[in-house]
Amino acid sequence: MNIQAVDQYFKDNRETHLDELKTFLRIPSVSSLSEHKADMHKAAEWLVTAMEHVGLENVKIDQTDGHPVVYADWLHAEGKPTVLVYGHYDVQPVDPLHLWESAPFEPQVRDNKLFARGASDDKGQVFMHVKAVEALLKLNDELPVNIKFIIEGEEEIGSPNLPKYVEENQELLKADIIVISDTGMQGHGRPAVCYGLRGLAGIQIDVKGPKGDLHSGLYGGAVQNPLHAIVEILQSFRDKEGLIQVDGFYDDVIEVSDKEREEFAALEFDLEHEKQEIGISEDFGEVGYSFVERTWIRPTLEVNGITGGFSGEGIKTVLPAEASTKITCRLVPNQDPDDIVAKLKAHVESHKPAGVTVEITEFDKGKPFLTPFDHPAIQAAGRSYEKVYGVPTAFTRMGGSIPIVAAFDEILGLPVVLMGFGLASENFHAPNEHFHLENFDKGLRVISDYLFEAAKLN
Length: 458
What we know:
It contains 14 helices and 18 strands. By secondary structure, the protein is of the alpha+beta class.
């Protein structure tokens, strides 16, 4: 690859590309809210036009039982590997709106950062892959590899319909490597290739007591309080050091090798800086594991919210009729979400206080994922990062979940390369989401180079 020519192309077209990305970001493609259904189709149609414009072929919108999938390809590199690029065009809701410094769907550039919902997660990163194809086709009239795109509209709601789509379109999606840019870097100027993700299992616990709210003076002390009951259930889940007390929860956890733990230690994670960055005085978690290990290779059980009773101004002496809590577990390789949910249900049933009834609703599930970090496709990504950023690439795991990644691994049986360009500080899923344009600029060059590196993987 003529890196100078590619670099010049992106410099010459930077403002045009940013204007195009801003148009994409103005579409409020919030997958979780029904009032944005038309916007979801608008975003998919925008992608179709953008992909056709850069020279991709067989571009189409495929309907699912939910929001549509966008597919495109270019398959003229005879004898070369096929790269399948996955991403998503849906975004998170923007609440609380009053915390945004600028309107979430009116992109603004401030301090060389692009502010908008979806700028980092994941419209900006999807857009970069499309523009890398544009640059190489404009400069060379061909690509070094065959390429396919599958861009969905339901990642932010757990990709409920994509596994079925992948299962039914295995021939269409046949490839040698899957590349996903929906993860982050280690920090400013510190590129990372992620090779492992935790899985996910979520439930809601609804505790019900009397048929209606009761006066705490007339009935307090004689009737079980659902809020106290739910606190008792929650308290039973973990000990004081965070060790999960659910029977069998750790049975299938595979211990990480000493070599891999040494690799984590070599990353020289700055715990003091992290504590300062997120505003805590002490870290917390399982004894014998570092902050990085607790968030990458250990399973968790976290309470995400509790509701019930009176929470307005002042006080109301009420004994509430019901209370509710939401819980999510992050899972590590070899743990099965269905098995974990079954164990959570059994635990709740065995720890349910007298005087209340309990209902459990299952939510998002996703299996954990792992590709060996010494896989050639993973190492090739590291080389591309290093050429552009000028520093060694870190090979990391990630504490979060991308549910479809495990499905890709299970259904298509391909190595998955997670090469993201976001930063943890970019507020994805929160007000004032933004994307550092330094990583937008460099990421375009990394992706372009990786397509040439991937061509050598025959």
